[in-house]
Amino acid sequence: MFAFLANPARFMVFSAWAAPVLFAGALILFAAGAPWALFYSPADYQMGETVRIMYVHVPAAWWSMGAYAFMAGASFVGLVWRHVLADVAARAAAPVGAVFAAVCLVTGSLWGAPTWGTWWEWDGRMTSMLVLFVTYLGYIALWSSIEDEEKAARLAAILCLVGAINLPIVKFSVDWWSTLHQPASIMRSGGSAISGEMLGPLLTLGGAYLLLFGALTLMNMRSAIYRRRVNSAELKKARQ
């Protein structure tokens, strides 16, 4: 599958229908999950209605990390096998992941103020998530600051792989250090600690975020490939 899509021509054919399908799927899941989360799931017995921020915050946290893991995988492929489409994929995913990380940080502060009595705390989870967001910005800035795309791809891939060290820190920070955040509530031994009434809309919106990430990344990749084709055509024309 991956070898098949590694050909840019085949990728363009695939993404021409895959991107709108993923985007439509994301809209359907958002349309189902948002009212479920806002109006039909119960309030938390301790946090009250504030818990509804979870339905925006948690999927954003999941897929800001998932997007970065995707970038790290693509960067590794691009760095080792020098595959241009892998570099394009990593670069295309970065702005989507950065927005998810920003949403996670902002909603986390909005959730923390009434719940913990503070907008920000330099604990392991918040600090490592901030580092993830800054790494996203650094990666995007590095690509934009170097005109030679091959050189930019190599340096950005190295930065991305070094930054991937932060992913397990984000994930396990609540276990390694004292933090305001609660420990893992869903993927843990003994099963989920969240009631099914809350877990249903949370997973639905998590799926919506995932499909949105896929759709936007494919769209960004298509734009990048079109841009490369135009630049190549202009360069070829200039040489004639």
UniProtKB/TrEMBL annotation:
The keyword Transferase does not apply. The chain crosses the membrane at residues 12-40, 60-81, 93-113, 125-143, 155-178, 198-219. GO terms for molecular function: heme binding; heme transmembrane transporter activity. Keywords: Cell inner membrane, Cell membrane, Cytochrome c-type biogenesis, Membrane, Transmembrane, Transmembrane helix, Transport. It is a multi-pass membrane protein. Residues 9-181 form the Cytochrome c assembly protein domain. One of its GO terms (biological process) is cytochrome complex assembly. It is found in: Cell inner membrane; Membrane. InterPro entries: Cyt_c_assembly, Cyt_c_biogenesis_CcmC, Cyt_c_biogenesis_CcsA/CcmC. Its main location: membrane. One of its GO terms (cellular component) is plasma membrane. Pfam families: Cytochrom_C_asm (PF01578). Belongs to the CcmC/CycZ/HelC family. NCBIfam families: ccmC. PANTHER family: CYTOCHROME B_B6 PROTEIN-RELATED, HEME EXPORTER PROTEIN C. Required for the export of heme to the periplasm for the biogenesis of c-type cytochromes. This is Heme exporter protein C. It comes from Candidatus Viadribacter manganicus.
